[in-house]
Design goal:
Blueprint lengths: L1 E6 L4 H16 L3 E8 L4 H10 L2 E4 L2 H7 L4 E4 L10 H11 L4 E3 L9 H7 L2 E5 H4 L6 H9 L3 E3 L1
Parallel strand pairs: 1-2, 1-4, 2-3, 5-7
Antiparallel strand pairs: 4-6, 5-6
Helix pairs in contact: 1-2
């Protein structure tokens, strides 16, 4: 089961779309909990988390990982949009693999599309492998992405 961690700051509009997209995975039993890691969001973000049943944690991604209950962490930017069949792909990976994975958003168009896709990828990693790692999404993708599988 996954713990989804979303680093967010005053991003209620983008966060609403992401939380709605996570509902089918929660219903299927893949997502155990959602933690929104935030320094100090506005009231709209806090209200959205409360309404959606997501835990709002005033802290970093590492602080959220430290309290995660899932065996795997899926760390996503609030603007993340999922590729088709993402639930099956992530469930399959987390049930049989051990290495991290980058969950790639749908491929856009244009000559920079592949680079933009990798720069906005979510990170799927076993909780025990994450340890006390610190950093923002860019840092985490750089650290774990080199040996990660690409999903999506």
């Amino acid at each position: 089961m996954l713990t989804v961690i979303i680093p967010a700051h005053d991003s209620a509009e983008a966060l609403a779309g992401l939380l709605a997209a996570l509902v089918p995975a929660a219903v299927d039993g893949l997502v155990r909990e959602v933690i929104v890691a935030d320094g100090d969001s506005d009231a709209a973000t806090a209200a959205l988390c409360e309404d959606a049943g997501a835990q709002l944690l005033r802290g970093s991604i590492a602080a959220a990982a430290a309290v995660a209950k899932g065996n795997w962490l899926l760390i996503l930017e609030p603007e993340m949009r999922f590729p088709s069949r993402w639930i099956e792909v992530v469930a399959d990976h987390s049930s049989r693999a051990t290495q991290p994975a980058l969950l790639l958003p749908p491929l856009g168009t244009g000559w920079l599309a592949g680079r933009r896709q990798a720069n906005s990828a979510g990170l799927l990693i076993r909780t025990r492998d994450f340890g006390g790692t610190q950093g923002d999404m860019k840092t985490l993708r750089a650290q774990f992405g080199r040996r990660a599988l690409r999903l999506g």
